[in-house]
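Suppose a colleague, Dr. K., hands you the sequence of a protein chain of 286 amino acids and asks what its three-dimensional shape might be. Before reaching for any lab equipment, you can write down a predicted structure in token form. Begin with the sequence itself:
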Amino acid sequence: RVQTTKTKNLKTHQVSTTATATAMTISTMPILRQTLISATVVALALLSSSTNAFISPLTSAKASKSTSLPAFPEFLDGILSSDETLSPVVEAARQKFWFYFFAGSGAGGIGIAQLPNMFREAAISRAAAGTGSTRGGAALNAGPLVGLYYDSEISEDDVADAIQKAPTAEFISSRSESLNYMASKGYIELRDFIKEMEAKKCNPLASYVVYDAISSGKGNVVSPVVYEEKLSAYREGASAGDLASSFAGDLNGFLAVKVGAFFGMIFCLLVDVGFIANAGIAGFLS
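The predicted structure, expressed as tokens, is then:
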């Protein structure tokens, strides 16, 4: 029994010693792992520095030079950078050329985009000539711009009839079918006016002419106050037998705005092209 007890105590001591050793090993594993990682990093750093020592400075410079990217694309570099071999006059001319080219292209594009709208408005009025009923009689004597813009003579009796039959601004606004915001606020739009004039069997061209005179070339919407004031003035002139003098002034004002805008746009485009061509010749062809 004594021997069995000693044997048990010895086994217990061995188990406790093994557990202690295992615990010490586990506790020292993180320290060993950190040490190994640090040693590996140092070795790699030394290996990298020793490898770079075998590369010649010329090869390194070539490599860095070949991998560098240009600051601008080639075509922009030729435009934005200055050439030391050019004279100051030529270089200044080239800079003006690029400035006029880009600035003029934007402004000219906006201007050219407006030309179709001008022709479209005139074409709509011209298409009304020769359609609908007419009273005939003498042509309206309102100056040469009338025939230039409308490309047709306008009967004075047709104009007088349209002025007398034109409905009030309130009536047109109440029956408006337009989605225009200004029309919803009581302004008179061209399409609403023409629709009501067609319902009253007025001459189509005379209806367009009357609206053009009222609008004075300020767009396809007219203030109801201006509409009523001008219609009253036209009716007074027609009743006094002097329609041309009371009506022709506003109509010619409309035509002057339209024709002036067209020729003014053409003139500005030609000036723009002239600046670009002048700078281009001085900068690239001289």
